[in-house]
Design goal:
This protein is of the alpha/beta class. It contains 22 helices and 23 strands.
């Protein structure tokens, strides 16, 4: 490895450790060793330190040993007259750098500047820097790393000179490659978010352009994110540093892009990133490290022109990016899905209560569909004035030899994200509550209703080509025609709902597996039944069936139930045999209906966690959107750590919101009547379905008997509340 780079990295590491330790001593003197330090709302403490050393840093006093470890890792500065093998010492220096920076940032968070970072998904007001992702954001975004919609991330240091146009082009190219962009530090006082703001580019987690922090020390937020991926989804244990580093090298495709002069401190951070297999690509004239070794290919590549830097970075990291070109005038890809079209940017909106709106997909006979036909009946986007509101009906008609009516709602649900992938277009909702907003910027580029049809035609062919042979799209913006489509759609929606509602686990001999998350949690296997939706909430039994038809070798495989072992637990011979094989022998049995006996494994993408409250003889449920403490004494992020990574933990279960209202929900433990606590936000979201189930169970007041965070936070408070209400769980058999 280059002597110049290694020498600079070691010098930089010494400076950073000295700086962090000085801040630590000041904080210790002022606040004492028991003062709390942490990143917000995370079960992973300081995640790099926790991942690599297994040490949970909770208080200032806990940092003393970590600084001692930093000093052990720090090599002596390199002599000008002595040549040594520099790679290992430089990597150690890089690791010490990250430990020190993480402690430095934690002290800033809790002591020096607790309100500096926005601590939200997107910038708020004048606060553009977001700081470390909390576990709610992390797990929400982690799903995209699991399902492949986000193949990796670019950690950007500095900015490409004082050039907003170049910054915008680089950011857009990275977005079009579906990558996340983590932004840190400045070049000559100018940051990447500053330049993007001048281009009126939306930044934040919702657009994958994440401004982590204004200094190089914020690089630990990106590396910490990668560490948590391994812990939460990969089943890597805290302290298994080798497992964490190898996991990230092989599965988390990340790289560093450095703009401008490279300081000793930047070299130290680059050396740290190499430990994880993340190379550095720079536009500056610095030495290169071209031989392979820790990284998949080169370690440091320099003097790359701005118009080539994204492609070169992807090549060096060994990242395989699939980009599908759709013939529309705006950029297109998952990175734009979270983009918002705000009032000041709005040209046109349809539906959403502002006007009538509906979207529908139906199957037709082959001779009734002309593939590629897109028609618009009524005013086009370009024919209306700014601020207009139009009624809108989108009718997609498909035909295919393998197409079935059961697949219609699955394809129809794709409208939401497929339309949202267009830059400058915002789509919310589905069916007859859809809402579409089109920005001025999209209009200026020539976007029309016709292009919505082009998107649906191209992407449905691309994603569902195994079952769809022909697609035509009809778009209506005349109110009379929109009303006709709405009436037709309501009849179809009703028939679909009746069909799905009539299906039970007993009525079907085939269930479906989902191993989509095995790339992150190798021992996890999800079993999807008609009455148990996948714990992520995204896949039901019909989705599994359609997925298998589309891709017979994919993650959704049919499982013949086999002989019934226990109807109460939900165990069958065929299911157990499949799970044992698919989990590589790590899981031998699984109960579809039990929290306590052989509960189903999880990756980390579940919507909620159910866990027992033994004193109350019941079960509590917490959803990932709830950030407060629960009666279990743990926040969501901590309970999630008990079930993620493919582990089996009796008493803890990852579940979807839909499954909570299923007749098969923890049937072995007594079902819904066992639930004694859930957050108010979750109770209100599910209230109608919970009430329906409560009446089925013969306890019409059950929903009000279930405590929530407004009346109880501790288990003792829950017990008092449910005794007062006469909750049925108190009279049930012991849950333990």
């Amino acid at each position: 490895m280059s002597k110049i780079i290694c020498s600079a990295a070691i010098r930089g590491a010494h400076k950073i450790v000295d700086m962090a330790e000085e801040k630590y001593e000041e904080a210790l003197k002022k606040h004492g060793p028991e003062h709390e330090v942490a990143f917000p709302n995370t079960a992973y403490y300081l995640p790099i330190i926790y991942s690599i050393l297994g040490a949970p840093v909770k208080q200032l006093g806990d940092m003393r040993e970590i600084f001692q470890e930093c000093r052990k890792l720090l090599p002596a500065t390199v002599s000008e007259h002595l040549w040594l093998p520099y790679l290992a010492p430089a990597l150690d220096a890089g690791m010490a750098t990250f430990f020190a920076e993480e402690m430095y940032e934690a002290i800033c968070y809790y002591i020096d500047e607790p309100d500096f970072y926005a601590k939200t998904e997107d910038p708020t007001g004048d606060r553009i820097w977001l700081g470390a992702a909390d576990d709610v954001i992390f797990r929400k975004r982690g799903v995209e790393f699991v399902d492949g919609t986000a193949p990796g991330f670019a950690a950007i240091l500095g900015a490409p000179a004082a050039d907003p146009e170049t910054a915008g082009k680089i950011a857009l190219e990275l977005q079009e490659k579906n990558l996340y962009i983590f932004m840190h530090d400045q070049t000559d006082g100018i940051s990447m978010p500053d330049l993007l703001a001048k281009q009126k580019v939306q930044i934040g987690w919702s657009t994958r352009l994440v401004p982590f922090g204004p200094t190089y020390t914020s690089a630990v937020f990106a590396i910490g994110f990668a560490c948590r991926v391994a812990l939460a989804f990969g089943g890597i244990k805290p302290g298994d540093f080798r497992g964490n580093l190898i996991y990230n090298k092989d599965r988390t495709f990340a790289f560093v892009v450095a703009f401008g002069p490279v300081s000793d401190e930047w070299y130290a951070n680059a050396a740290g990133a190499i430990n994880w297999g993340f190379p550095t690509i720079s536009d500056w004239d610095i030495p290169q490290v071209l031989p392979t070794g820790i990284c998949t290919y080169e370690h440091v590549v320099s003097q790359v022109p701005h118009d080539e830097i994204v492609q070169r970075a992807i090549e060096v990291r060994g990242l395989k990016v699939t980009v599908s070109k759709i013939d529309i005038p705006t950029s297109y890809g998952p990175a734009f899905e979270g983009e918002r079209v705000r009032k000041d940017d709005l040209h046109l909106e349809c539906g959403g209560g502002r006007s009538l709106g509906v979207e529908l997909l139906v199957s037709r006979d082959m001779d009734e569909v002309q593939d590629g036909l897109v028609t618009v009946e009524g005013p086009e986007i370009t024919e209306v004035e700014e601020g207009a509101k139009l009624p809108l009906a989108i009718l997609a008609e498909v035909a295919g030899r393998q197409m079935q009516s059961d697949f219609e709602p699955i394809l129809e649900r794709q409208f939401h994200h497929l339309i949202n992938y267009a830059q400058g277009i915002m789509h919310i909702g589905q069916r007859n509550i859809m809402w579409l907003r089109v920005s001025k910027a999209a209009i200026e580029k020539g976007f029309k209703f016709e292009h919505i049809g082009r998107i649906l035609h191209g992407k449905l062919h691309q994603d569902f080509g195994a079952i769809v042979d022909k697609i035509q799209v009809k778009i209506y913006t005349e109110e009379s025609r929109v009303k006709e489509i709405i009436e037709m759609a309501k009849d179809i929606y009703r028939a679909r709902d009746d069909r799905l509602g009539s299906m039970t686990d007993e009525s079907e001999d085939i269930f479906y597996s989902c191993t989509l998350c095995q790339s992150f949690a190798p021992s996890h296997v999800c079993v999807i039944t008609p009455e148990r939706v996948g714990m992520c909430g995204a896949y039901n039994w019909l989705d599994g069936k359609a997925s298998y038809e589309i891709n017979p070798t994919g993650p959704n495989q049919p499982i013949t139930k086999g002989e019934l072992i226990d109807a109460n637990l939900g165990q069958w011979t065929g299911i157990n045999e499949f799970v044992k094989k698919a989990s590589r022998g790590n899981v031998e049995r699984v109960s579809a209906y039990s929290l306590m006996i052989d509960p189903m494994t999880a990756c980390g993408c579940f919507e909620c966690v159910a866990t027992m409250l033994p004193t109350c003889n019941g079960i509590m449920i917490v959803n990932r959107d709830y950030m407060g403490m629960t009666p279990s004494g743990m926040k969501f992020s901590t309970t999630a750590g008990m079930v993620g990574g493919g582990q089996v933990t009796p008493g803890f279960l990852g579940v979807s919101k839909h499954y909570i209202c299923s007749r098969k929900f923890v049937k072995a433990e007594g079902g819904l009547k066992r639930v004694v606590w859930m957050p108010r936000i979750l109770k209100e979201e599910l209230r109608d379905r919970l009430q329906e189930r409560a009446e089925e169970e013969g306890v019409p007041d059950l929903v009000e008997m279930i405590a929530d965070d407004e009346v109880a936070i501790t288990e003792d408070e829950v017990l008092r509340y449910i005794k007062e209400k006469g909750h049925p769980a108190l009279d049930m058999e012991s849950i333990v």
